[in-house]
Design goal:
By secondary structure, this protein is α+β, with helices and mostly antiparallel strands. Helix content is about 35%, strand content about 25%. The protein has six helices and eight strands. α2 packs parallel to α4. It is globular, with a radius of gyration of 19 Å.
């Protein structure tokens, strides 16, 4: 599939088909999320991924600016945290809560008063030309099962990033003010 192919040529509207699958190239999670939100309207969005990208986060932020996302939560993998730290400020702009845990799942859950939509994908929130497998379903039981599993990981096996790096930055700033540093801008090891 070429990148120019529209989602409507791959998937049917959510109200026409309760469960749909696709295996191929060119169907990216961000575009799929936008397509879903066009049908559901403003909703809460929960994203679980191993790794994310600046492109996905910028697109997610644009969906928030369009008032399509009411509340956003991201769970990313602890092993991918080096990249996560680099993207932390952008993540903070996109999501109300960001968590790191032992996670390799790739799901997107969309919820509002009228809709429960689950996306299960092999794709991280990155872009590439490899074939990926995606399932989209409006099945309520599937949504509840996935949400329950996500909640379990977030509650028992993850750390919340919100404010963590802000606290470290503030501590570093205080240390710079306290230390009379004869070498311009160099801090002692460990600060």
């Amino acid at each position: 599939m070429s990148r120019g192919r529209k989602i409507q040529t791959i998937l049917r509207p959510l109200n026409k088909c309760a469960t749909q699958t696709y295996l191929g190239t060119g169907l990216h999670t961000l575009g799929l999320l936008g397509w879903i939100l066009q049908q559901t309207g403003r909703a809460d969005v929960y994203v679980s991924t191993f790794s994310t990208s600046e492109a996905f986060l910028n697109g997610f932020l644009n969906l928030r600016k369009k008032q399509l996302i009411r509340h956003g939560v991201l769970l990313a993998d602890l092993k991918a945290s080096r990249k996560t730290v680099h993207l932390y400020r952008l993540m903070q702009s996109c999501f109300d809560s960001v968590y790191l845990g032992m996670n390799h799942s790739k799901i997107v859950l969309v919820q509002n008063d009228d809709h429960l939509v689950s996306v299960i994908s092999s794709q991280n929130q990155t872009y590439g030309d490899r074939a990926e497998c995606t399932m989209v379903t409006t099945d309520k039981e599937a949504y509840r099962d996935l949400y329950s599993g996500l909640r379990e990981i977030v509650d028992k096996n993850s750390i919340q990033l919100n404010g963590l790096f802000n606290g470290l930055a503030a501590k570093n700033q205080r240390m710079r003010e306290i230390i009379d540093d004869p070498i311009d801008g160099v801090l002692p090891f460990g600060y």
